[in-house]
Specification:
Elements: H1 20-27, H2 31-45, E1 50-60, H3 89-101, E2 106-111, H4 121-133, E3 137-141, H5 149-156, E4 160-162, H6 172-175, H7 181-193, E5 197-199, E6 202-204, H8 210-221, E7 229-234, H9 251-264, E8 269-272, H10 281-289, E9 294-296, E10 300-301, E11 304-305, H11 309-318, E12 322-323, H12 330-348, H13 350-357, H14 359-363, E13 366-368, E14 387-389
Parallel strand pairs: 1-2, 1-9, 1-12, 2-3, 3-4, 4-5, 6-7, 7-8, 8-9
Antiparallel strand pairs: 10-11, 13-14
The structure holds iron/sulfur cluster.
EC number: 2.8.1.6
Family: Belongs to the radical SAM superfamily. Biotin synthase family.
Domain Radical SAM core: 49-276
Length: 392
Amino acid sequence: MQKLKITKLTPHKQTDYWTVCEVEKLFETPFLELVFEAARIHRENFNPQEVQLSTLLSIKTGGCPEDCTYCPQSARYHTGVENEALLAKEEIVAKAKLAKAKGATRFCMGAAWRGPKERHMPMLREAIAEVKALGMEVCGTFGILEEGQAEQLKEAGLDYYNHNLDTAPEHYEKIITTRKFDDRINTLGKVREAGLKVCCGGIIGLNESRKERAGLLASLANLDPQPESVPINQLVKVEGTPLFEAEDLDWTEFVRTIAIARILMPNSHVRLSAGRQQMPESMQAMCFLAGANSIFYGEKLLTTSNPDNNFDAQLLYKLDMKPEGSDLDFATILEQQEQEMTDYIAEHGTQEFLEHSHPAHFAGEQTSGGCGSGCGCVSDKKDDSGVGYYKA
Ligand code: SF4
């Protein structure tokens, strides 16, 4: 296949239409050239030292009727995820306050269901309004929306609606059968019509071909207008899901995907999302160089573990990055965290601190990549698959 000369790339306008073949050619670009071009485009549109921090809270976990083959929350698979009822508004708002204190500027709420029922809407509206009143941006990922629901969410103060395309249209029915690719597009249309901003990305590592990865990226880039936020997820393989044995992708393929997302969607925030826990720091740094400028920050990323705030803050401090739109810098965040830890240990003792700060560790829950606390639970209990079972 003839390689596209990256120096002759057509500057992207939102009205341009990207064909799958054009995007496939980008994948064929020599790796370092591709990263360099993505970095150049990133610098034209953003401050490359800034990273947007979003915190994601699962407000209703597990028991989902959908059959997404990558997802441990589907009721069809036995993954050990415990079903939790919809959280109370007070709990949601308390978590949002905590996220803000740790430097997050956007708070995302996710619910594991096909879509919200009318009976859920009053609580969702109240929670959105109260989180918004904290001065944070608010995002929701609530699945398929019925007529009028997007307007209700917008009226309550929602800024962004997350609805991923998941994978390429051609690959969609191998991954999910309970809905169609076009259902996603329909909900995205309702979201745009209601005046909400769009957070829309996908997952790679679902046994898709490179052409299908290109198809996903072309589909995202051809949304008009392009999504303001583009989460790029790497599959987190969870035992019990059909994709647990999915083929591993080389790390360079993930970085290429980030770089191409940046090139195709120059004005969007490209979010390094699920799967970050499994990535070494050097790979995450390469993703930032290739144009990623947003992360999910701390706590759990729905049901798979995400590097905790301390680990994130240390990495971003080392990279001389700063949180976008926040008065805090990572040196201050680290100092605050250190002080919180010292105060807690002084009051409650070390054992209780560890139990409090590493509940997964002590409950023997499945997690991966370590908790970043320096308690030494990472390397000696990690199994070959990269997944560890931490027990006290
Ligand atoms: S990805 Fe969302 S819709 Fe699909 S099974 Fe998981 S929670 Fe349900």
